[in-house]
Amino acid sequence: MTDSMQTPEPIACEPYPQEDRARGCEGCAPVMALTYEEESILSRMRQLKQEVRPITDRLKEIESFIGRGSDPETSTFASEWKNLSNELQGLRDQWKSWEKSLDEAIDRKMILLGHRPPKT
């Protein structure tokens, strides 16, 4: 019976090429668990990204129209560009606020898990 039993091969990152080692091995990589708070914050940040994409696309279109300079509606495009730029800046400010909230949530988790000392 002992002849049919085989010992499992150890998991090692060595067979992976050097450039792939930077990403880590799936067998060795730690599993990251998110708290509900972190999931909620990351969800909101993803929503912000979805809001930003069409705005940046439209800004690029407007910049190409304004760059041509031959359109009679250049002033209309300029005012739209200004409005969209202001909206984009507001979304960037929200992103920074959520980023700070995420950092704070991660700090709280690390303290609760005992990986960092409590702040005094």
Write a brief structural summary.
By secondary structure, this protein is mostly helical. It is 63% helix and 0% strand.
Structural write-up:
The protein has 120 residues and is mainly alpha-helical. The protein has a domain at 32-112. 63% of the residues lie in helices and 0% in strands. It has helices at 18-21, 36-68, 74-112. It starts with 17 loop residues before the first helix and ends in an 8-residue tail after the last helix. The model has no long low-confidence stretch (mean pLDDT 80).
Average pLDDT, all residues: 80
Helix content: 55-70%
Question: Element order, helices and strands?
Answer: HHH
Distance between the termini: 61 Å
The shape, in one word, is elongated
Oligomer: single chain
Number of helices: 3
Which spans have pLDDT < 50 for at least 5 consecutive residues?
none
How much of the sequence lies in strands comes to under 5%
Rg on CA atoms, Å: 25 Å
- The structure class reads mainly alpha
Q: Would you report the number of β strands?
A: 0
Summary tags:
120 residues, mainly alpha, 3 helices
List the helices and strands and how they pair.
Elements: H1 18-21, H2 36-68, H3 74-112
Helix pairs in contact: 2-3
